[in-house]
Design brief:
eight-stranded mixed sheet, binds adenosine-5'-diphosphate, 30% helix, Rossmann fold, binds magnesium ion, 257 residues, globular, alpha/beta
Length: 257
């Protein structure tokens, strides 16, 4: 049994679409976080909107799905840093600790490159500056993304993040998702691809050395029973024209589905 504590560092979840970042990684970790009375989660998803974290909305301190919302959220995090470090310093604390009087803040960015892209140049600078000071202020950024190369996430930010790597597309993506030590010890997330969703490697503070390159499986809470295509539609594949490309004008209310 390994206990993972998220405080005091930032975390990147890497993995290709369908590898389990949101459901396996996000839901599992967020479910732990939102049940703590001294944690507030601020989340953004501009890409999949409600689909990823919408079901958790009541337990999130904030959840934004628009560009303006994301800008305001990250500006808000930037603005709170100084007041929090001052508060901690007044109590002789160099970092957040349980019982210090502040709630721990987790800022969770799903499909993070889209959130970062939505920022103005000033907003981006502020975010990077917030990220540098955040750990001393009791704030953790969690970024979920498909590939952590410089075109997706500023190198400065990537260098500061612990790595939770799900199945990736190829070895090049693996090199961005894994730490040096995981790669050196033979971790191969590209072999999972997205065929084994939920499988991952975690290199983060507090993880024992001998577990750094050990595969893990995250929990899934998706309670769906899937039937194979051969059992649906009397053995026939449903003709593609029956899959509407956009919702009907008068969509049925969700309650009637
Ligand atoms: N831990 C898990 N165990 C088994 N299946 C999982 C797990 N996590 C996710 N899945 C399956 O994989 C699908 C894609 O997962 P998702 O988290 O949406 O991927 P991503 O966010 O990386 O695109 C989910 O709908 C679910 O069916
Ligand atoms: Mg996802």
């Amino acid at each position: 049994m390994v206990r993972y504590v998220l405080t005091g560092h930032h975390l990147a979840l890497n993995g290709m679409t369908g590898s389990g970042k949101s459901v396996g990684g996000g839901w599992s970790l967020l479910a732990e976080l939102v049940t703590r009375s001294d944690v507030a989660v601020l989340a953004a998803d501009l890409t999949k909107g409600e689909q990823s974290l919408g079901c958790m909305r009541p337990s999130l301190h904030a959840f934004v799905t628009t560009k303006d919302g994301a800008r305001a959220l990250l500006d808000g995090v930037h603005a709170m840093i100084r007041a929090r470090t001052d508060y901690l310093a007044e109590r002789g604390l160099q970092r957040w600790q349980a019982g210090c009087g502040l709630v721990y803040v987790v800022c969770w960015l799903e499909e993070a490159p889209d959130v970062i892209d939505s920022l103005t140049d000033v907003g981006r600078e502020r975010w990077l500056s917030a990220m540098k000071a955040a750990r001393s202020a009791g704030v953790t950024f969690v970024l979920s993304l498909q590939r952590s190369d410089w075109s997706q996430i500023p190198t400065l930010a990537r260098g500061q993040m612990a790595k939770w790597c799900f199945g990736v597309q190829d070895s090049s993506d693996a090199s961005f998702g894994l730490s040096e030590i995981q790669a050196e010890r033979g971790a191969r997330p590209e072999l999972w691809n997205n065929r084994q969703p939920g499988m991952a490697y975690l290199d983060a503070p507090g993880i024992p050395d001998e577990r750094l390159a050990m595969p893990m499986r995250t929990f899934t809470s998706v309670l769906t029973t899937r039937s194979s295509p051969s059992t649906r539609h009397g053995g026939q594949r449903r003709p593609s024209r029956s899959i509407p490309s956009r919702p009907p004008r008068s969509a049925r209310p969700a309650s009637s589905l």
